[in-house]
Amino acid sequence: MTDKDNALFSTIRQPSNLRSNLADTLTAQIESGDLKPGQRLPTEQAIMAATGVSRTIVREALATLRAKGLITTHQGLGAFVSDDPTPRSFSIIPNDLQSIDEVLRVLELRMGVEYEAAGLAALRRTPEDIDRMQDRLDALDRALEEGGYGAEEDYAFHRSILVATQNSYYGRLFDTFGNLMVPRQWARLDKMTAAERKRHAARMRREHHAIFTAIRDGNEAAARRAIRSHLSKSAARFEELRDATGLS
């Protein structure tokens, strides 16, 4: 490891959210070419010394890069930048969503995708699509009524909208989210009173039913408005949580 290499890593500052920001910093250095294909990364100990983060944080950041195909590891030799680190596919993995700010970024992406998809679904949905969406909506209602998070049911309902576009690329893109699109650890239902949980469930049902009704009725403009409203309100709730807790 040269002095130049060590200097490169000494530029990493300890961020407020250690996991995702260390991974982001390393990713940026790889994508910019500061870390070149085949180059050996500093040891875990060196990264810890340069950044002040724990070994666990370093390992989680490296695991994120490895899952994205940006680095490879060799037993006894360490981690190396992949020979071709340009990602060939897009994915969202658990370590990407370790902060509220990251969840908000995913919601921004979803808004762009689902706004268009909801409009197309309203124009193209078939009777089978309507039945599928109704089934997914009923399952979500049951999950919320039983006091659950409804993460899997929520994902299934939103994906049924993508399917109704009759464009398989929408569904394939949405599959990169999985039910990580709203990580359970941020729902914080366990912190709510019974009354707050009841209001939360009612709000979720109301917003999802508005989306379904617009698509079922073939109202393109209303479908777009409903999905934008739902995702915008979700983002606002996460922003409130971030501001109230000081988390980011």
From TrEMBL:
InterPro entries linked: GntR_C, TF_FadR/GntR_C, Tscrpt_reg_HTH_GntR, WH-like_DNA-bd_sf, WH_DNA-bd_sf
SUPFAM superfamilies referenced in this protein's UniProt entry, alphabetically: GntR ligand-binding domain-like, Winged helix' DNA-binding domain
Species for this entry: Rhizobium aethiopicum
Domain HTH gntR-type: 16-84
A matching Pfam family: FCD
Keywords: DNA-binding, Transcription, Transcription regulation
Protein name: DNA-binding FadR family transcriptional regulator
Superkingdom, natural source: Bacteria
Listed PROSITE patterns: HTH_GNTR (PS50949)
GO molecular function, one term: DNA-binding transcription factor activity
